[in-house]
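Now for today's protein.

===
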Amino acid sequence: MAIDSISHTFYDIEVEHLDPPDTLHLIKILSVAGQRFTYELRAPLTEGAVNYIKSLIDAVVFSDLIIESTPEGFEARECRSHLKKHS
């Protein structure tokens, strides 16, 4: 089941669906402390993807990342350029 939003107690999370909308998403994150970072999800935004994203946030991974689906689950790597931030 596709998901349109993500909520977290200490973070404002905005989901932007890109083309193709079912497999490319920007997850723009703003913490209450002011950190801004973006995750680019290159997979459907499912409950499993949301749980992985929340695990990264809870592990204090505060940098721009590209997240891809692999046969073993999800894999994140640093993005060489800056991704779009909150406006």
User: Anything to note?
Assistant: Residues 12 and 49 are 17 Å apart (CA to CA). The beta strands are 11-17, 25-31, 36-42, 65-70, 73-78. The mean pLDDT is 89. Helices lie at 47-58.
